[in-house]
Amino acid sequence: MNVQPIGVFDSGVGGISTLKKLSQLLPNEQFIFYGDSLHAPYGDKTIEEVYNRSKEIVDYLLTKNVKAIVIACNTATSAAKERLIRDYPELPIIGIEPALKEAIDQGEKHILVLGTQLTMNLPKYQKMVTKYAHTHTIHSVACPGLAEYVESGMNQPQLLSQLLDEFLGKYQDKELEGVVLGCTHYPFLEKEIRTYLTTNISVHTGYQGVARQLQHLLQEKQQLNQNNSKGAVTLLGSKPKEIPYYQQLFEFF
Description:
By secondary structure, this protein is of the alpha/beta class. The chain has helices at 15-25, 47-62, 74-87, 100-105, 117-121, 123-132, 146-151, 157-168, 190-197, 207-220, 243-252, and strands at 6-10, 31-35, 68-71, 93-95, 110-115, 137-142, 178-181, 202-204, 233-237. Helices cover 44% and strands 16% of the residues.
């Protein structure tokens, strides 16, 4: 049981950023990543559409005999995780969520959260913002087009400059202590986002929390891989021709 792989999926290439961190923090584990680039992005779909795609991917990963699932997509976590947990009660399912609480726990009072429209609109995120709104200044910014930029190869700097101007322009002069990258595509643009705002700003991704939760659940079920050898990473996706790009990003990140 311990040597079974861990399934990781995302709406596209973004989840590779999470996958890389998981493979570094749990180096003995085997991972199978599935990127749903054919249906990216998830951020402009309905909750039901995101849930249906997520369930199809989980069913596919189960044919690969995975012992746990990591939803490496903030939007899919927000829209589908709770239903998937009910659908598969014996399967450990962990999701990545906007790391707003992480920023707050570090004492930051002025926080910029970047994410998809669907993630920002869902009640779970709105409830958290409301909870801390009286003590913190939280700017929630939906960034349509930013995930697509990463999916398309990140080779149009002028387009990226236009997108950053559109989404972040009015925050350059605001007091900010931290920025939450609430979509797993965005960490591939961390350098550019830091430079646009200020290089001193704290950046939060949520990777550490996901890795700790995954490790804890596997320990509880006595399913941690005890082998001393380094685990392998298998990259799969709904657009097989994109796999070389997946590999490139995995090595880049």
